[in-house]
């Protein structure tokens, strides 16, 4: 059976890695890995392949950056000949980035079966580009691998036949479970806990400059109490270029380049609180039991709220400040790493990719 995987952007890599690994352990499976090149910087791509021990991509479409239409169209036209030439039995797409929906569309038009890993998530916010990508990819896919039961419910509500839906758990957590012990070697000696960890890259936060300025001022204020570590996504870096975010001798706001997987995981594990707009980080902090404040009005990952680790602070700067201070005041003396409990979310157990591999083998070649 020939399975072709499509990855393109940073959050795809930690999802595809365990599936590639689980399928490599099976006999009779041939795999092809296609990188669309949506993310191309070393810090956004290559370093993840190394740390996650992923094979080199068999081909790179080198689509690069552009508007949504340009980027999606570039994947559509570059990926079609690859599918025609390589003739996979099935194509796996991951998450909700532009590369995901473009690859799914190519395959469905060519009559090649598509499996969507991380299916069924819904923020119900169609201003979010990822929500459009999720809705379309799920409609186009033959096999829908969901990370949590809410995904199944969303798909059923949209009329997806239950025979296409497979609740397998969270592949991103597979990678975390495998690499958490190794990440300890990547702790920064120069950074004493407690500290606050921040990531912001969504257009809704970073393309709105007055709001971004307010966020930055809040982070600078928080850094008077605790060091704030902020690895900055390239999109955010461009927006920050003209801002002078902080001044004063008591400010400990560290703006860093994007970090590799292991260093970032170590930072998350030992953070007092994480402030983010990422989807994956809401999940990783839930697994790690680290408090997370999400700078968004909604989330497609409601299970992280139900577990009590994640709180939505929306676009309310006062709420962000109060929530951050509440978490810091509540913080117990025990660090998250010492009190790491087995994760309570069903199937977030490090074995989701094995379940996907089994289902794929059962589905068989075309
Ligand atoms: C994309 C995904 C988002 C995901 C995020 C993780 C979509 C719609 N969005 O957003 O869901 O959470 O990746 O990072 O697919 N850039 C670089 N170097 C790179 C990549 C990008 O400098 O390696 C810059 C470019 O100027 C580009 C901008 O970052 O225009 C944004 O990149 P893009 O791929 O359009 O979307 P992300 O914001 O990264």
Protein architecture, described:
α12 (280-288) links the parallel β11 (273-276) and β12. Helices cover 44% and strands 15% of the residues. With 366 residues, it is of the alpha/beta class. The protein has helices spanning 10-24, 46-51, 68-86, 98-110, 129-140, 149-157, 171-183, 203-206, 209-222, 234-240, 261-269, 280-288, 302-306, 317-330, 352-363; strands at residues 2-7, 30-35, 59-60, 90-94, 113-117, 143-146, 165-167, 195-199, 227-231, 253-256, 273-276, 292-294, 310-312. It has 15 helices and 13 strands. It has 2 domains: 2-169 and 347-363, Rossmann fold (3-Layer(aba) Sandwich), CATH 3.40.50; 182-339, Rossmann fold (3-Layer(aba) Sandwich), CATH 3.40.50.2000. The strands form 2 sheets. Strands 3-2-1-4-5-6-7 form a 7-stranded parallel β-sheet, with helices on both faces. The protein has a 6-stranded parallel β-sheet with strand order 10-9-8-11-12-13, sandwiched between helices. Bound molecules: uridine-diphosphate-N-acetylglucosamine. Residues 9-11, 38-41, 44, 65, 96-98, 129-130, 201, 233-235 line the site of uridine-diphosphate-N-acetylglucosamine (UD1).
Q: Could you give a quick summary of the protein structure above?
A:
The chain has helices at residues 10-24, 46-51, 68-86, 98-110, 129-140, 149-157, 171-183, 203-206, 209-222, 234-240, 261-269, 280-288, 302-306, 317-330, 352-363; strands spanning 2-7, 30-35, 59-60, 90-94, 113-117, 143-146, 165-167, 195-199, 227-231, 253-256, 273-276, 292-294, 310-312. The chain is an alpha/beta fold and 366 residues long.
């Amino acid at each position: 059976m020939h399975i072709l995987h499509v990855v393109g952007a940073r959050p795809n890599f930690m999802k595809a890695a365990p599936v590639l690994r689980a399928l490599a352990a099976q006999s009779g499976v041939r795999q092809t890995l296609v990188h669309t090149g949506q993310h191309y910087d070393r810090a956004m791509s290559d370093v993840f392949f190394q740390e996650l021990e992923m094979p080199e991509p068999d081909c790179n479409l080198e689509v690069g950056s552009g508007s949504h239409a340009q980027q999606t169209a570039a994947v559509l036209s570059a990926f079609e000949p690859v599918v025609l030439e390589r003739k996979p039995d099935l194509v796996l797409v991951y998450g909700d980035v532009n590369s995901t929906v473009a690859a799914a569309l190519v395959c469905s038009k060519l009559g090649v079966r598509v499996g969507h890993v991380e299916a069924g998530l819904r923020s119900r916010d169609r201003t979010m580009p990822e929500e459009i990508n999720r809705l379309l990819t799920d409609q186009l896919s033959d096999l829908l691998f969901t990370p949590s039961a809410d995904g199944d419910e969303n798909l059923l509500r949209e009329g997806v036949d239950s025979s296409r839906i497979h609740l397998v758990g969270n592949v991103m957590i597979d990678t975390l479970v495998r690499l958490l012990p190794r990440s300890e070697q990547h702790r920064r000696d120069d950074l004493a806990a407690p500290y606050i960890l921040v990531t912001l890259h969504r257009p809704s936060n970073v393309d709105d400059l007055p709001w971004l300025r307010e966020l930055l001022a809040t982070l600078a204020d928080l850094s008077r109490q605790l060091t704030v570590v902020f690895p900055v996504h390239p999109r955010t870096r461009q927006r920050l270029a003209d801002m002078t975010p902080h001044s004063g001798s008591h400010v400990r706001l560290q703006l860093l380049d994007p970090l590799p997987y292991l260093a970032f995981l170590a930072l998350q594990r030992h953070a007092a609180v994480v402030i983010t707009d990422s989807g994956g980080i809401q999940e990783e902090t839930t697994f790690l039991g680290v408090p997370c404040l999400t700078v968004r009005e909604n989330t497609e990952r409601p299970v992280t709220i139900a577990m009590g680790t994640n709180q939505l602070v929306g676009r309310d700067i006062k709420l962000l400040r109060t929530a951050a201070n509440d978490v810091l005041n509540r913080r117990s003396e025990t660090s998250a790493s010492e009190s790491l409990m087995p994760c309570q979310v069903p199937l977030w157990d490090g074995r989701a990719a094995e379940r996907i591999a089994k289902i794929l083998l059962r589905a068989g070649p075309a």
